[in-house]
Amino acid sequence: MKFCSHCGHTVAFEIPMGDDRPRHLCHDCGAIHYVNPRVIVGVVPYLGDQILLCKRAIEPRLGLWTLPAGFMENGESSEEGALRECWEEALARVRTDDLYCVYDIPHINQVYLIYRGELTDTDFGPGPESLEVELFHEDEIPWDDMAFPIMTETIQHYFADRKEGIFKLHRGVIERKL
Ligand SMILES: [Zn+2]
User: Fold this and answer.
1) In whole angstroms, what is the distance from residue 23 CA to residue 8 CA?
2) Ligand 1 centroid, distance to 26 Cα (angstroms)
């Protein structure tokens, strides 16, 4: 950040009084421009023993498969955001069960909240950000063509829990790859 979004003056990058880390702050109008983690909301849409995946039509990871997910918007709950993403990317409607996976990725300042949700029908298809949308049995999952390790892990949890008949909340902190 170079200029204050409140008044247009040049901002400094320093530790504000009483704070413990540097922020972009404006010495002209006094605004402190906090930057906090972003929340990604998503869903594991399932039907019977199948789950729905989307093949990405956009970068990053164009052409690879993922669960419907995206950045949470202002003014919506995480569950509403997950349903919205499912509709936008897969034109699919789900009835959400529970929050299923929570992942923190501190080094890229992201938090993932992934729900489980049963498809209400099989009337789905690719939205603008997807090339294809398909239901997969466990043995049909394109494991080698998954876009994001977090989604791979979520799907592995899903099928393991399904075998046990108990879906529990999974939490994880993804550390920077060395
Ligand atoms: Zn300012």
Assistant:
1) 16
2) 5
Each residue of 81-132: pLDDT tens digit?
Answer: 999 999 999 999 999 999 999 999 999 999 999 999 999 999 999 999 999 9
Q: CB–CB of 173/103 below 8 Å?
A: yes
Domains by residue range for the chain, with CATH: 1-35 (2.20.70.10), 38-173 (3.90.79.10)
Sequence letter at residue 16: P
CA of 118 to the centre of ligand 1 (A): 48
- Expressed in angstroms and rounded, the spacing between residue 162 Cα and the centre of ligand 1 is 53
Phi, psi (deg, nearest 5) at residue 53: -125, 155
